[in-house]
Amino acid sequence: MQRAASRILLASSNSGKLREFQALARDLPSSVEVRALPGIETLPEFHEDSPTFGENALGKALHYSRHTAEPVFCDDSGLVVPALGGRPGVHSARYAGANANNEQRIEKLLRELGGKSGRERQAHFVCVIALARQGQAAAVVSERVDGVLLEAPRGSGGFGYDPVFYFVELNRTFAELSPEEKNRYSHRGKAFRRLLAALPGML
User: Fold this and answer.
1) What are phi and psi of 175, to 5 degrees?
2) Enzyme catalytic residues
3) What residue spans define the domains of the chain?
4) Which of 97, 137, 163, 170 has its Cα between 20 and 30 A from that of 156?
5) How many other C-beta atoms are found inside a 10 Å radius of the C-beta of residue 103?
6) Contact 42/85 with Cβ under 8 angstroms?
7) Listing from the earlier edge strand, what are the strands of the sheet with 6-10?
8) pLDDT digits (tens, 9 = 90+) for 1-42
9) Fold of 6-198
10) By the 8 A CB rule, do 84 and 126 touch?
Protein backbone atom coordinates (compact mmCIF):
# COMPACT_ATOMS: atom_id res chain seq x y z
CA MET A 1 0.00 0.00 0.00
CA GLN A 2 1.34 3.45 -0.94
CA ARG A 3 2.02 5.63 2.04
CA ALA A 4 -0.01 8.84 2.27
CA ALA A 5 1.92 12.06 1.91
CA SER A 6 3.20 13.55 5.14
CA ARG A 7 2.54 17.23 5.71
CA ILE A 8 4.88 19.76 7.25
CA LEU A 9 3.93 23.36 7.93
CA LEU A 10 6.12 26.34 7.16
CA ALA A 11 5.86 29.01 9.86
CA SER A 12 6.54 32.05 7.70
CA SER A 13 4.55 34.81 6.06
CA ASN A 14 7.18 35.10 3.30
CA SER A 15 5.36 33.96 0.16
CA GLY A 16 8.63 33.68 -1.79
CA LYS A 17 10.03 31.15 0.68
CA LEU A 18 6.78 29.17 0.66
CA ARG A 19 6.82 28.91 -3.15
CA GLU A 20 10.45 27.74 -3.13
CA PHE A 21 9.85 25.07 -0.50
CA GLN A 22 6.70 23.82 -2.23
CA ALA A 23 8.52 23.61 -5.56
CA LEU A 24 11.38 21.70 -3.92
CA ALA A 25 9.00 19.22 -2.33
CA ARG A 26 7.28 18.63 -5.69
CA ASP A 27 10.55 18.14 -7.55
CA LEU A 28 12.03 15.63 -5.12
CA PRO A 29 11.16 11.93 -4.84
CA SER A 30 9.53 12.40 -1.46
CA SER A 31 6.03 12.04 -0.04
CA VAL A 32 6.15 15.34 1.83
CA GLU A 33 3.64 18.11 1.28
CA VAL A 34 4.50 21.67 2.33
CA ARG A 35 1.80 24.08 3.48
CA ALA A 36 1.81 27.39 5.30
CA LEU A 37 0.99 27.31 9.00
CA PRO A 38 -2.69 28.36 9.08
CA GLY A 39 -3.40 31.64 10.82
CA ILE A 40 0.24 32.49 11.53
CA GLU A 41 -0.64 36.20 11.35
CA THR A 42 -2.91 35.79 14.39
CA LEU A 43 -0.39 33.89 16.54
CA PRO A 44 1.96 35.51 19.06
CA GLU A 45 5.03 36.68 17.16
CA PHE A 46 8.46 35.18 17.71
CA HIS A 47 11.16 37.82 17.99
CA GLU A 48 14.28 36.84 16.08
CA ASP A 49 16.86 38.42 18.36
CA SER A 50 19.37 35.57 18.74
CA PRO A 51 22.95 36.02 17.47
CA THR A 52 22.99 32.95 15.19
CA PHE A 53 20.90 31.56 12.36
CA GLY A 54 20.55 28.24 14.19
CA GLU A 55 19.16 29.74 17.37
CA ASN A 56 16.66 31.84 15.44
CA ALA A 57 15.46 28.93 13.29
CA LEU A 58 15.07 26.54 16.19
CA GLY A 59 13.49 29.16 18.40
CA LYS A 60 10.88 29.91 15.74
CA ALA A 61 10.13 26.25 15.09
CA LEU A 62 9.68 25.48 18.80
CA HIS A 63 7.53 28.57 19.30
CA TYR A 64 5.11 27.97 16.43
CA SER A 65 4.97 24.19 16.83
CA ARG A 66 3.17 24.70 20.13
CA HIS A 67 0.15 26.01 18.21
CA THR A 68 -0.53 22.91 16.08
CA ALA A 69 -0.31 19.13 16.30
CA GLU A 70 1.47 18.94 12.92
CA PRO A 71 5.24 19.23 12.47
CA VAL A 72 6.41 22.80 11.87
CA PHE A 73 9.60 23.93 10.18
CA CYS A 74 11.24 27.33 10.00
CA ASP A 75 14.34 28.64 8.37
CA ASP A 76 16.62 31.50 9.19
CA SER A 77 18.74 32.56 6.30
CA GLY A 78 20.78 35.52 5.28
CA LEU A 79 23.77 36.98 3.51
CA VAL A 80 27.18 36.97 5.18
CA VAL A 81 29.88 39.34 3.92
CA PRO A 82 33.24 38.74 5.64
CA ALA A 83 34.60 42.14 4.54
CA LEU A 84 31.72 43.78 6.43
CA GLY A 85 32.38 41.81 9.60
CA GLY A 86 29.71 39.27 8.68
CA ARG A 87 26.96 41.82 8.06
CA PRO A 88 24.14 41.76 7.23
CA GLY A 89 24.08 38.19 8.65
CA VAL A 90 21.18 37.39 10.97
CA HIS A 91 19.92 40.93 10.41
CA SER A 92 19.61 40.46 6.63
CA ALA A 93 15.85 41.08 6.57
CA ARG A 94 16.13 44.13 8.86
CA TYR A 95 19.43 45.44 7.53
CA ALA A 96 18.05 48.76 6.29
CA GLY A 97 15.30 49.05 8.90
CA ALA A 98 12.24 47.03 9.87
CA ASN A 99 10.06 48.40 7.07
CA ALA A 100 12.69 48.57 4.31
CA ASN A 101 12.09 46.81 0.99
CA ASN A 102 14.52 44.68 -1.02
CA GLU A 103 15.74 47.64 -3.08
CA GLN A 104 16.56 49.64 0.05
CA ARG A 105 18.44 46.74 1.61
CA ILE A 106 20.49 46.22 -1.56
CA GLU A 107 21.18 49.94 -1.78
CA LYS A 108 22.58 49.99 1.76
CA LEU A 109 24.67 46.88 1.10
CA LEU A 110 26.23 48.35 -2.06
CA ARG A 111 26.88 51.62 -0.28
CA GLU A 112 28.79 49.83 2.49
CA LEU A 113 30.74 47.88 -0.13
CA GLY A 114 31.73 51.05 -1.97
CA GLY A 115 35.44 51.02 -2.85
CA LYS A 116 35.83 47.31 -2.13
CA SER A 117 36.90 44.91 -4.89
CA GLY A 118 38.13 41.39 -5.53
CA ARG A 119 38.08 39.15 -2.47
CA GLU A 120 36.48 41.92 -0.42
CA ARG A 121 33.26 41.39 -2.37
CA GLN A 122 33.06 37.66 -1.64
CA ALA A 123 29.94 36.59 0.25
CA HIS A 124 27.87 33.56 1.08
CA PHE A 125 24.24 32.82 1.75
CA VAL A 126 23.49 30.68 4.81
CA CYS A 127 20.31 28.74 5.55
CA VAL A 128 19.46 26.85 8.73
CA ILE A 129 16.20 24.89 8.85
CA ALA A 130 14.72 23.56 12.08
CA LEU A 131 11.79 21.15 12.45
CA ALA A 132 9.79 20.80 15.66
CA ARG A 133 6.64 19.10 16.84
CA GLN A 134 4.54 20.35 19.72
CA GLY A 135 7.44 22.12 21.37
CA GLN A 136 10.03 19.39 20.81
CA ALA A 137 12.97 19.76 18.42
CA ALA A 138 13.15 17.07 15.73
CA ALA A 139 15.89 18.21 13.32
CA VAL A 140 18.24 21.09 12.55
CA VAL A 141 20.15 21.25 9.23
CA SER A 142 22.25 23.93 7.56
CA GLU A 143 23.84 24.73 4.19
CA ARG A 144 25.60 27.61 2.42
CA VAL A 145 26.42 28.78 -1.09
CA ASP A 146 29.29 31.06 -2.09
CA GLY A 147 29.31 33.96 -4.51
CA VAL A 148 30.48 37.48 -5.26
CA LEU A 149 28.56 40.71 -4.81
CA LEU A 150 28.16 42.84 -7.94
CA GLU A 151 28.22 46.63 -8.02
CA ALA A 152 24.68 46.83 -9.46
CA PRO A 153 21.62 44.53 -9.48
CA ARG A 154 21.01 42.15 -12.39
CA GLY A 155 17.95 40.03 -13.10
CA SER A 156 14.29 40.16 -12.14
CA GLY A 157 13.75 36.82 -10.41
CA GLY A 158 14.17 35.65 -6.85
CA PHE A 159 13.92 38.01 -3.90
CA GLY A 160 16.05 39.61 -1.22
CA TYR A 161 19.70 40.06 -2.21
CA ASP A 162 19.46 37.73 -5.23
CA PRO A 163 19.99 40.49 -7.86
CA VAL A 164 23.50 41.31 -6.59
CA PHE A 165 24.60 37.79 -5.62
CA TYR A 166 26.70 36.54 -8.54
CA PHE A 167 26.94 32.74 -8.67
CA VAL A 168 30.26 32.07 -10.38
CA GLU A 169 29.47 28.47 -11.30
CA LEU A 170 26.66 29.55 -13.64
CA ASN A 171 27.97 33.04 -14.49
CA ARG A 172 24.69 34.63 -13.41
CA THR A 173 23.13 36.26 -10.38
CA PHE A 174 20.57 34.32 -8.38
CA ALA A 175 17.95 36.72 -9.81
CA GLU A 176 18.90 35.59 -13.34
CA LEU A 177 18.40 31.89 -12.62
CA SER A 178 15.22 30.01 -13.39
CA PRO A 179 13.30 28.81 -10.32
CA GLU A 180 14.48 25.27 -11.06
CA GLU A 181 18.13 26.34 -11.24
CA LYS A 182 17.89 28.35 -8.06
CA ASN A 183 16.29 25.46 -6.18
CA ARG A 184 19.09 23.19 -7.35
CA TYR A 185 21.96 25.42 -6.24
CA SER A 186 20.67 27.71 -3.50
CA HIS A 187 21.45 27.48 0.20
CA ARG A 188 17.73 27.02 0.91
CA GLY A 189 17.37 24.25 -1.66
CA LYS A 190 20.38 22.35 -0.37
CA ALA A 191 19.28 22.69 3.26
CA PHE A 192 15.74 21.55 2.48
CA ARG A 193 17.02 18.46 0.68
CA ARG A 194 19.04 17.65 3.80
CA LEU A 195 15.89 18.05 5.90
CA LEU A 196 13.87 15.74 3.65
CA ALA A 197 16.63 13.14 3.84
CA ALA A 198 16.34 13.21 7.63
CA LEU A 199 12.53 12.98 7.75
CA PRO A 200 11.83 9.26 7.12
CA GLY A 201 10.90 7.65 10.41
CA MET A 202 10.54 11.05 12.05
CA LEU A 203 7.00 11.94 10.92
Assistant:
1) -75, -10
2) 76
3) 6-198
4) 97
5) 11
6) no
7) 32-36, 6-10, 72-80, 122-133, 136-149, 165-167, 172-173
8) 344 568 999 998 888 788 889 988 887 666 789 999 999 999
9) Maf protein (3.90.950)
10) no
